[in-house]
Write a structure and sequence with these properties.
Blueprint lengths: L2 H40 L4 E2 L2 H7 L19 E7 L1 E7 L5 E7 L2 E4 L12 E7 L4 E6 L3 E2 H20 L3 E2 L18 H13 L1 E8 L2 H7 L6 H21 L1 H6 L1 H12 L9 E16 L2 E11 L3 E3 L3 H4 L9 E7 L5 E4 L3 E2 H7 L5 H21 L1 H15 L5 E3 L2 H6 L7 E6 L1 E7 L7 E10 L13 H8 L4 E4 L1 H14 L4 H6 L5 E5 L1 H12 L5 H16 L1 E2 L7 H9 L12 E4 H32 L5 E4 L38 H10 L7 E6 L13
Parallel strand pairs: 5-7, 17-18
Antiparallel strand pairs: 1-2, 2-6, 3-4, 4-5, 6-7, 7-8, 9-10, 10-11, 11-12, 11-14, 12-13, 14-15, 15-16, 18-26, 19-20, 20-25, 21-22, 22-24, 23-24
Helix pairs in contact: 5-10, 6-8, 6-11, 11-12, 14-17, 14-20, 17-19, 18-20
Length: 696
């Protein structure tokens, strides 16, 4: 099953679930509207709405979904309504929700704190509007007058809490009569007094947060932006190290400095919030989830007014006085506990044991690991060298000087030591990673004071070498033929000035020794294999088409070859010469080189493998290029347009290496190495420098 099938299946499931939810919602809404219509049609009012109730119900005569639209009562009748309370609606993935409160299937509005008096089966008195009903009494415990009074007390309590006014906090609900036994008092009076004492909460004082409490409230964060800025600085430095130039290195300074400033700056504490010190009895209330009886939680309250959440490590050693009354410092904004009695204090904990910003450390560590891993992948060898060089610098280690490879072999340096070497080094020949039958120059592995390699003659057929080098096509200028060709072109293109202008550089040259040319091509192409055969066929066809002879005009290569083999081209009137356009001559040389390249590459591979097998003597050093160790720039053979063209070394080679012919080819194409004497500083890394390979 592919990903598209899974995606389509998920979309179909979501679509089906959406359709089912919409149908269920519309069915419920239809049932709610039917229940309201039935209540309007069949309901009998219990009584008339009083004048005080009419005034109290006015703030709720607005549509719940659109508070700006007011509605009116259908009449002043108060109707009975019985049933379970159900809230339903729709929620979108973006967080938007449309919810409806229903009682007995009828849309209702619960004013004030009527929701606190709901039961599993409810008996309510409601007044009707066009779209919903408003509850004016519920379960014999709630009415509009009592709800308004409790709301006023609640507002007064909130104002007292915010302002920190000293004294006993306002009760929202009066102490109920509790049946209890007591000595010297009637049971109801004693129970009511004990309940009132348990619910009583006093505000003792108000203060502002201490700096330690502010720091505890405002953690340091996870250092996201410093980490991102640090990675940006690493990227800029990486581009600069890869050859981006000084501009990238300078541009790395801005994010690096900003990251350091964001990391180490002294963060402002921010505005201090208000803290109230209160006294009251600490009560534990067990809360259960009506939908899940197994979900039970315990919430601490101070009296019946203030929720209290203690840190977990405080609960283990919590000891309450006999009467259960404690002094607690609570933040006004969120009721956070800052002090409990005389034993627990956030201020003292923060000052003595500051909170460790683990998230901050982890983020910065991850950013460093990512940058280090990227740096290690890009330049792993340089990283090892940098670590070793830094270690040597920190230890104050002085470079060890060696005058010869023999001294280095007898007393090798320890891993991490810095050494200074001076002498003659030759780049190593290594097998090419992509062409196993060929060799490549590895100037990061230098053989110090090794035996000089004498290159043999390049074993390549003279005909193939002539075709590859272009020497098979010998030409000389022919001014008279140039003039004739141009006059002919200009005459044929008199009506096209642009074409005549483009033909101004067309010239012709005389081809010498046409017989040798044809025989050389035939001889060299006999050894061609693979794709080179097609290149040779094209070379032959282009030769026949472009070569102009004095008398004979062969129409195929076979006819031209017969003329050359029979000596017809050397007769007195032919003089073994021909004429060719210079552009055609250049094309023939290119085709000849491409057709002979496989043979030349094979010959170079044989010579290179032979030279690699004869590397002897000295000590092989692993060297990375740097300011103190410039290495010769040697392009691989695969990237050289001419395999027989010697690469220029960084400094002139000794006179003994300046030979000519095929041997010069081997010396310069296969032995372009650091033969010149230069001073270098090498870093010795464990297991890499020096090597025992080829030690003489």
């Amino acid at each position: 099953m592919d990903s598209n099938t899974i995606r389509i299946g998920l979309m179909l499931i979501i679509l089906a679930w959406t359709v089912i939810s919409a149908i269920t919602y519309m069915a419920r809404r239809s049932g709610n509207k039917d229940a309201l219509r039935q209540l309007k049609r069949e309901g009998q009012p219990l009584r008339r709405l009083g004048a005080e109730e009419q005034a109290l119900v006015q703030p709720f005569l607005v549509r719940p979904a659109k508070p700006t639209q007011s509605v009116a009562l259908l009449n002043d009748g108060v109707f009975p309504l019985r049933g379970a309370f159900v809230r339903h609606g729709l929620e979108s993935s973006h967080g938007a929700a449309t919810l409806h409160d229903t009682l007995g299937g009828v849309d209702v509005v619960l004013p004030y704190d009527a929701r606190d008096y709901l039961r599993e089966d409810n008996q309510a008195e409601v007044v009707l509007t066009e779209k919903f009903a408003i509850v004016v009494a519920l379960n014999g415990e709630f009415d509009l007058v009592g709800g308004r009074e409790r709301e006023a007390r609640r507002q007064k309590q909130n104002q007292q809490w915010s302002s920190g006014k000293l004294g006993e906090m306002q009760n929202v609900v009066d102490a109920d009569a509790v049946t209890a036994e007591g000595a010297g008092q009637t049971p109801d009076v004693q129970a009511e007094h004990e309940f009132a004492e348990a619910m009583r909460v006093e505000i003792l004082s108000q203060r502002e947060e201490t700096p330690a409490e502010i720091a505890w409230r405002r953690p340091a964060g996870i250092a996201f932006w410093p980490a991102m800025l640090g990675l940006a600085a690493f990227v800029c430095m990486g581009v600069a190290a890869a050859g981006g130039g000084l501009a990238w290195l300078v541009s790395a300074a801005a994010p690096a400095l900003l990251a350091v400033w964001l990391t180490w700056r002294r963060r402002p504490l921010g505005a201090a919030q208000k803290v109230n010190r209160v006294r009251g009895e600490l009560n534990a209330i067990v809360l259960t989830n009506p939908a899940n009886a197994q979900a039970v939680s315990t919430q601490l309250f101070l009296g019946d007014k203030l929720p209290v959440t203690l840190p977990d490590h405080w609960r283990a050693n919590l000891e309450l006085p006999d009467d259960g009354r404690v002094d607690v410092d609570l933040r006004v904004e969120d009721y956070a506990v800052l002090r409990l009695g005389n034993r627990f204090s956030v201020d003292e904990e923060q000052r003595l044991f500051p909170r460790v910003a683990w998230g901050r450390h982890v983020t910065l560590a991850l950013a460093g690991l990512i940058a280090g891993a990227a740096f290690g992948l890009v330049g792993g060898d340089d990283l090892r060298g940098d670590v070793a060089l830094t270690s040597a610098w920190a230890r104050g280690f002085q470079p060890r000087v060696y005058d010869s490879a023999t001294a280095l072999a007898q007393d090798p340096p320890a891993p991490g030591d810095v050494v200074a070497l001076k002498g003659m080094g030759r780049c190593q020949f290594q097998r090419d990673a992509y062409r196993q039958d060929e060799v490549r120059f590895d100037c990061e592995r230098i053989r110090w004071q090794g035996d000089a390699i004498q290159a043999d003659e390049l074993r390549l057929a003279p005909a193939a070498l002539a075709l590859y080098s272009g020497a098979f096509l010998k030409t000389r200028p022919n001014p008279m033929m140039d003039m004739l060709v141009r006059n002919q072109i200009y005459g044929s293109m008199a009506g096209n000035p642009l074409a005549a202008y483009n033909a101004r550089n067309v010239s012709a040259v005389t081809v010498n020794r046409v017989t040798d040319l044809v025989l050389t091509i035939e001889l060299a192409c006999e050894a061609a294999t693979g794709q080179a055969i097609a290149e040779c066929d094209r070379l032959k066809a282009e030769t026949v088409d472009s070569l102009m002879l004095a008398r004979d005009e062969p129409d195929s290569w076979l006819a031209l070859l017969r003329l050359a083999q029979g000596g017809a081209l050397k007769q007195q009137r032919n003089a073994d010469d021909g004429v060719i356009i210079t552009r055609a001559a250049d094309l023939l040389r290119d085709l000849a080189r491409s057709s002979m390249e496989p043979q030349v590459r094979e010959a170079l591979a044989r010579a290179g493998n032979d030279l690699m097998a004869r590397q002897r003597g000295g000590v092989v050093l692993q060297v990375w290029p740097g300011r103190s160790a410039p290495l010769p720039p040697l392009p691989p053979l695969a990237h050289m347009p001419d395999l027989l063209q010697p690469s220029a070394p960084p400094t002139p080679l000794p006179a003994a290496a300046r030979e000519t012919g095929v041997k010069d080819l081997a010396n310069n194409s296969l032995k372009v190495i650091a033969d010149h004497i230069r001073a270098c500083s090498f870093l010795i890394v464990d297991g890499v420098i020096p090597s025992n390979e080829g030690r003489g």
